Structures are given as C-alpha cells and as structure tokens.
C-alpha cells in the first residue's frame, strides 16, 4: 500500500500550468510553493477574480485552483469561463457543499485549510484525465 | 389550510373584539360597506377576477352571527382612519379554499383581514362568493367557526414564513462563521509554518507563536464585537500596544476615525503586532527614552487612500533583528500589497524603524459605513 507521503513525493506536475486565484496571501503562497515544488508552473497567484480572469484570458493554462469567495466576489463566473474552454478547475474553499451551484457538483472541492497532498492529487488527476480525454 | 385545529379562543376573541370595536364605532353596515369597497379596490389593483359587485355577495363573520350585504358603499373612510391609527388591511390570497368543520369545502374568492396593531393578529375577515354560488344557511351559520379557522391558518402561515426566513438567515450566518473559522485556521497554520522557519529555538518558536496567535485572537474578538461597523484602526493600535504593556508616555497615536473591513483589520493587527514586538526587543520601546509615533491621514488626490506611518525615534542603537527580515517584513512587503493592494515600505534608519503603508480605501479595506 502506498502511504500518503509517497504519493506526495511521486506526484510530478512537470510543465503543468496552474492558475491560482486565492485572496489570502499565506494560503496562496502555500499552494504555489507546493505546486512549484512538484514541477508545476504557477500562473498568478491572483488575489481577486478580475485579475484571475485576465490571466486566464491571456495565458495558456492547464488547470485552475480557485477560492470560491474572494473578498466577497464569487469565482463561479470565472469557473464557468474556464469550463467553456475545457480547462478543469478545483475549488479550494472554506464553505461547505451547499454553496456550490448545481452545475459544479462534479468539480473537486478541497476544504480549507487545504490539505496539500490532496491538492497535488487533485491537480494531477484532473490534468491527467484532460490529457486522456484529448487523446 | 385543510386541517382544522381546535378553536383558539384567544384568536377568536381578538377577532370578535376587533370587529365589535369597529362596529361600535361606525356600525356593522359601515364595516360591510367599507370591506366591500376595499376588497374591490384591492381586487382591481391586483387584477383579480372576483370583484365584489351587485352580483357578488359580501359576508362578514362576527361572533354574533353573519351579516350579508349586496352592492357597495363607502367604508373606505373607516379603513383610512383605521390605517391612520396604525391598523392595516391585508389581502392574503385571491382564492382560498377552506374546509368547514363539517368537512364541506368553500371557495372564498377574496379574503380580507383587518389586523389591529402589530401584536393583535387578525381581527376581521370578509368572504366573497360569486353570485349563483351562494353559501347555504348551514354554511353561513358556520362562518364564525370558519373565521377563526382561517385566522389560525393565516397566522400559522405567517409564522411558518417568518420561521423559514429565520432559518435561512441562521443557515447563512453559520455558513459565514464556518468560512471565517476555516480561514482563520488557514492563517494560523501559515503562522505556525512561518514561525517555525524563523525561530532560533524551541522556546523562541513557542513564544512567538503564542504572541502571534494572541494578536490574531484579539482581532477576531474585535471583529465579532464590531460585526456590523468594523473595528476602529485606532482601537487596533491601542489594543496591540496595551497587550504588550507599552507605556503611554512613549507613544503618540494620531489619526482620523477609520473602520476596517475584516481582512484589512486582520492584516493590520498582525503587522502591528510584529512592529510592536520588534520595537520592544530591538527598537524604540526597548528603553524608556525611545519614542514611537503612529499616525495616519486620509488623502484623496488620485483615489481615496489612507497614509499610515509607524515612526520610531530616539533609539540608542538601531539593530536589525532576525524577525525584521522574517514574518513582519513578509507581512508588510508581501501580505499587505497582495491582499489589500497597499503600497508599503519598511526601513531601519539610524533613528529607529520606520514603516509606511498606503492603503487604498475601498470595499476590501474599509467597512461599508466608512465609504458611504
């Protein structure tokens, strides 16, 4: 059986471009450091939806990690925009399931404080399934 | 609406008392006329099909029996004066099917209630039937019972509505608290990591951590206490200095009233904590001769901005602490710009530490009242 520690060590996200939209500096920093340590390229981080949207429109991205409530602005609009372009998103949030609109019920939701191993797994598997479905 | 509860004598009594009061003031005919006219106006205003007219009968239930009226006259004056006296006419639903205690069902086209006062509940009911669908003598006889049943049903409905609103509000509140708690935990986790990275010993780590979490807890307390209007910046400054037993004669605090939004309050409080701790260990608060000025002003040359300054002076030997390159510096140079869009600087001069923060005044940084 593989221990969680091993999973974290195994996950490689080499060359994966991840947009991070998170308004808390420390959480954003933690997420970005973890992603970078596993080979991902971080786009952002952005503290608000507007800048996140700008980044998503101007830079190629493979996957996005979105906080749901960014200082009062909800990230669902941005999540929809990404979905239309077939870019998978992961929600990292302090809210429970009940705030998720129905259309996002299938989206991976990580509860805060975010478990970084779970985050890596989530990014890894959504990028992998993206690649699989494209081939 | 179909379940018939045992009579609520209290509601029934209120209903009857209210009707009697109106009747004794203006006569029962006046009630009937006014109710009819008011019903017509309401029906017209809401586009109902059932407008009481010559072909429509109006019935009013009172404790003493049933009065019938055809046609319409003016009770509008009575209603108007009732409204002036804090009473109101409420229309509940255009079509109300009610079940009598005898299990017979009646269709009321329009139902009017006349609540008197905020607490008194419903005191008047009027039922209208289309001509040709006139109620039987038996049905008319059961109208007083029907009146209280309807009253109860309406009050139950009203209470259920209030309860639903209350529950929804409660759920939203819990969700918000949960969100805040999780965010605080995330910040605490980050603080633990940061403290671990910069600490020189285990004792050092523990004491830093404890002090930082205390600062965060104080802010959470202030945020909960001032949930609506947000905590005053000056209070945050004074609370941090007081928590560290800083002597008042060493410090000058000056600035206009400014209430901060939660995130800004949190970030500012942590920054204040780091600045204070450093001043106590290495700067102006280390010796009684040292001086500290914390001042701020609000400027709106380009956009509304708060210009905040922490200026230490009369420091014998200005030292650079490890913390000054660590958590405190990260707060000032990274957290404040990232989370609040602030422009910041932190320098150690020969006189002591100096921190400047230019904070844009917007919905992220200040409480709603402040921007209005």
Automatic annotation (TrEMBL), chain A:
Extract the InterPro entries matched here: Bact_response_regulator, CheY-like_superfamily, Sig_transdc_resp-reg_receiver
The protein's matches in Gene3D superfamilies, at most eight in alphabetical order, are given as: 3.40.50.2300
Instruction: Give the highest taxon in the source lineage.
Output: Bacteria
Q: What region holds the Response regulatory domain?
A: 17-127
Keyword list (alphabetical) reads: Phosphoprotein
The record's section on Pfam families has: Response_reg (PF00072)
- The chain residues annotated with the modification 4-aspartylphosphate are 67
- Entries under PROSITE patterns matching the protein: RESPONSE_REGULATORY
List the protein's name. Response regulator
Write down the species.
Steroidobacter gossypii
UniProtKB/TrEMBL annotation, chain B:
User: Which UniProt keywords are listed?
Assistant: ATP-binding, Kinase, Nucleotide-binding, Phosphoprotein, Transferase
Q: Where in this chain does the record put each Signal transduction histidine kinase HWE region domain?
A: 176-257
The protein depicted here goes by the name: histidine kinase
Keyword hit for RNA-binding: no
Q: What is its EC number?
A: 2.7.13.3
Kindly give the InterPro entries that the UniProt entry links to this protein: Sig_transdc_His_kinase_HWE
State the source organism's domain of life.
Answer: Bacteria
**Reaction equation(s) it catalyzes:** ATP + protein L-histidine = ADP + protein N-phospho-L-histidine
Q: Which GO terms describe its molecular function?
A: kinase activity
């Amino acid at each position: 059986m593989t221990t969680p520690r091993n999973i974290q060590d195994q996950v490689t996200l080499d060359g994966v471009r991840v947009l991070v939209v998170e308004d808390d500096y420390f959480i954003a920093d933690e997420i970005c450091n973890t992603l970078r340590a596993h080979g991902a390229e971080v786009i952002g981080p952005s503290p608000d939806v507007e800048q996140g949207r700008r980044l998503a429109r101007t830079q190629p991205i493979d996957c996005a990690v979105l906080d749901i409530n960014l200082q009062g602005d909800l990230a669902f609009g941005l999540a929809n925009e990404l979905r239309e372009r077939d870019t998978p998103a992961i929600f990292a949030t302090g809210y429970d399931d009940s705030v998720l609109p129905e259309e996002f019920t299938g989206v991976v939701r990580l509860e805060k404080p975010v478990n970084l191993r779970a985050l890596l797994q989530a990014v890894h598997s959504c990028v992998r399934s993206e690649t699989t479905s494209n081939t | 609406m179909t379940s018939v509860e045992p009579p609520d004598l209290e509601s029934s009594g209120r209903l009857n008392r209210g009707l009697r009061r109106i009747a004794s003031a203006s006569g029962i005919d006046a009630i009937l006329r006014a109710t009819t006219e008011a019903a017509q106006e309401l029906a017209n205003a809401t586009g109902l099909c059932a407008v009481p007219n010559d072909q429509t009968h109006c019935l009013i239930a009172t404790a003493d029996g049933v009065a019938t009226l055809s046609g319409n006259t003016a009770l509008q004056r009575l209603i108007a004066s009732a409204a002036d006296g804090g009473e109101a006419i409420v229309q509940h639903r255009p079509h109300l099917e009610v079940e009598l205690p005898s299990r017979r069902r009646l269709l009321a086209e329009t139902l009017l209630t006349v609540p008197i006062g905020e607490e008194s509940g419903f005191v008047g009911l009027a039922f209208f039937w289309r001509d040709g669908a006139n109620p039987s003598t038996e049905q008319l006889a059961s109208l007083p019972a029907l009146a209280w049943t309807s009253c109860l049903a309406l009050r139950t409905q009203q209470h259920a509505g209030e309860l639903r609103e209350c529950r929804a509000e409660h759920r939203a509140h819990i969700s918000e608290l949960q969100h805040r708690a999780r965010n605080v935990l995330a910040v605490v986790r980050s603080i633990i990591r940061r403290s671990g990275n910069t600490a020189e010993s285990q004792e050092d780590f523990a004491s830093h951590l404890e002090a930082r979490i205390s600062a965060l807890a104080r802010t959470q307390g202030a945020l909960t206490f001032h949930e609506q209007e947000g905590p005053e910046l000056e209070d945050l400054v004074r609370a941090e200095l007081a928590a560290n037993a800083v002597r008042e004669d060493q410090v000058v605090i000056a600035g206009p009233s400014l209430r901060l939004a939660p995130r800004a309050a949190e970030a500012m409080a942590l920054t204040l904590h780091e600045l204070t701790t450093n001043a106590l260990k290495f700067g102006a608060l280390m010796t009684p001769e040292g001086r500290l000025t914390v001042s701020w002003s609000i400027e709106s040359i380009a956009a509304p901005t708060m210009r905040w300054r922490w200026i230490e002076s009369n420091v014998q030997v200005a030292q650079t602490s490890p913390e000054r390159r660590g958590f405190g510096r990260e707060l000032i140079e990274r957290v404040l710009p990232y989370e609040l869009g602030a422009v910041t600087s932190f320098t150690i001069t020969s006189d002591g530490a100096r921190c400047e923060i230019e904070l844009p005044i917007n919905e992220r940084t200040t409480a709603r009242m402040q921007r209005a």
